[in-house]
Write a structure and sequence with these properties.
The chain has helices at 3-8, 14-31, 37-44, 49-59, 64-77, 81-85, 89-96, 102-120, 128-131, 139-150. It is mainly α. The protein is globular and about 60 Å long. The two termini are 34 Å apart.
């Protein structure tokens, strides 16, 4: 048995206890932290893929409180891909301001909604390959949609919040 195998061995229970102790410490460390904005939107909307997708698109390079406020304003005005696609880009800009890159994001949100309606019958795709074809959707966004909305256990979303 190699050194690494011995370190992972649980014959005497020591490594397992150490792992459990670390997990307890991590749990205590994050207990006081607020949920991430996208997770709040996900919880509030019962993991609605559309809301998770749009909130995640808005969240890039934007602080969580700003993302949550902008998403809430936008979803108050338009709750479906069809109603959001019908909004003028200038209206979306006003609703999501001051998220970072709000002008570009408003164009991507509108076009993504248009494509969801036209290509996917109003439903957010549940496959990575299809999500990645939508404007403004990269791997991180696609992974988060698949994890939060489609209960995927085959995806992982890594960003600055990975420690949570």
């Amino acid at each position: 048995m190699g050194t690494q195998d011995q370190a992972l061995s649980t014959e005497n229970g020591q490594p397992r206890r150490a792992i459990n102790a670390v997990l307890r410490l991590l749990g205590r460390a994050i207990r006081g932290m607020d949920d991430l904005a996208v997770e709040k939107i996900s919880d509030e909307s019962l993991e609605d893929p559309f809301r998770v997708l749009i909130a995640t698109m808005l969240s890039a390079q934007t602080r969580d409180p700003v993302t949550h406020a902008a998403s809430t304003r936008l979803f108050r005005k338009a709750r479906t891909p069809k109603t959001m696609a019908a909004l003028r880009t200038a209206t979306i800009q006003k609703l999501i301001y001051p998220v970072s890159f709000y002008r570009n994001k408003s164009v991507h949100v509108k076009e993504t909604c248009r494509q969801i309606v036209g290509r996917y019958g109003g439903r957010v795709p549940d496959a990575m390959s299809e999500l990645l074809t939508l404007p403004g959707v990269g791997r991180k966004t696609a992974n988060l949609v698949l994890i939060l909305s489609h209960a995927s256990r085959d995806n992982i979303c890594v960003d600055t919040h990975v420690h949570r």
